Known about the structure:
By secondary structure, this protein is α/β, with parallel strands linked by helices. It contains 17 helices and five strands. Strands 1-5-3-4-2 form a five-stranded mixed β-sheet. Strand 3 and strand 4 form a beta hairpin. The mean pLDDT is 91.
Amino acid sequence: xxxVSYESLVVQxxxxxxxxxxxxxxxxYQRREVWNRxxxxxxxxxxFEQKPIPTIYIRHSxxxxxxxxxxxxxxxxxxxxxxxxxxGGQFAARHxxxxxxVRYGELSKSQQERLRLTSISxxxxxxxxxxxxxxxxxxxxxxxxxxxxxxxxxxxxGGEFKQFSLGEASKRVKIWRDYGIFSSNDIARMAEVQFVxxxxxxxxxxxxxxxxxxxxxxYKDFDESFPxxxxxxxxxxxxxxxxxxMEKKAITETIFSRAPLFxxxxxxxxxxxxxxxxxxxxxxxIWHIDERFSADVxxxxxxxxxxxxxxxxxxxxxxxxxxxxRDEYIRGQLTS
Length: 336
């Protein structure tokens, strides 16, 4: 990313950009949640009271062929929508000069003018790539109406392990999307960051059961420093290079595009003390495993190992027993 360029825009300018379709308020990584009326009203009241609101961040790029600026809202989607909706008379808000909640049309001309001339800080992300945006999005969005467990960790911690997890996750945003491992909404809710955190824990401690408290503890214990950061970054890079060297369809068209199976495959490929698995053998094993999993054969008619593997892929896939079964089965196919 080249830089962040800050400037102030008045409310009128923002409405004008929206009216000219110059603002993209719904980029693929944005949360799908919508503010309720009290939240919108509170924001407008904050503006009326001339109190500060957080800076809005916009990725600014150019479409050279169309000779057009592209302004993608990275952070501030709900704030901008609330402002636009209030100007459109869609809800009422508390104004210090009125005893009751008022809609925009009930304001005096001078009050309307003051609102429209209110300055809002905007940070333009110039030259930002998708990985830049995802990392910035993760750093900025530490507070939300309904935070999931990973978003709560993101809000609570700011140290080394969080930065490692966020950085490694954002570097692989193209893989998450192109290989179908996480949806856009998953990424918006930081599912891929938790995934990376869990991978790191399993790389350090061996195969583990999913435990929210264990992840929390890692964030806490390694908030000040994370001595294994460089080692795990290198090991992760080697695994992802290995995955990218395979035929893409070996992931996208098999069960290994599912996060639990990709998780198992990643940990098997992470072999710091062993020789890498030959690429042709790896791809053959992946296709064979997918073929056997997808075969139109009932559980009762499968071998015991195969039946256990199928169940471990479908039922409680994040539990230690399921992970152990998948690990054993996949390793077996790689050596057979």
